[in-house]
Design a protein that fits this description.
about 140 residues, alpha+beta, 5-stranded antiparallel β-sheet, about 20% strand, globular
Length: about 140
């Protein structure tokens, strides 16, 4: 009986600690911003959007095309198929071309808290989506 009580207490403590970590864990803005800086991007210090998603096990045409953008930046989203991710969106402050006043955004996909993919884009119908390496390669 003592073993059972100790087991229940241990499980309760582990669950409690895990819940506290989830509640009090902050987003690692600094890590995300440093990731973008590696590619030359300057962004607002706080994200504008945070979305949880799942990277599909099997890529359709859209994900295959998106992964080509990743490969242009030396990244590969295929390594993370089937994993949960969080997408953070930041406003880009140093896009080198005139966008007619339209905001340019940088998206970062993080898996297990680590940035693994991203893009730079606008949301208009005639907008664009570029690799994170756009500043260095122009594509």
């Amino acid at each position: 009986m003592k073993k059972m009580i100790m087991y229940v207490i241990t499980v309760a403590v582990i669950i409690g600690i895990g819940a506290m970590c989830l509640v009090f864990a902050g987003d690692d803005e600094e890590l995300n911003i440093r990731f973008l800086e590696k590619y030359g991007w300057e962004v607002d210090s706080e994200y504008t959007e945070k979305v949880t998603l799942e990277i599909p096990e099997v890529f359709d045409e859209v994900y295959n095309n998106y992964n080509e953008l990743q490969k242009a930046a030396g990244l590969d989203l295929a390594k993370y198929k089937g994993r949960k991710a969080v997408r953070y969106t930041y406003i880009v402050m140093n896009f080198p071309e005139d966008t007619g006043g339209e905001n340019v955004f940088a998206n970062i996909l993080c898996v297990a808290g680590e940035p693994v993919a991203g893009d730079v884009m606008t949301v208009s119908l005639d907008g664009f989506m570029y690799s994170l390496s756009y500043l260095k390669t122009g594509r």
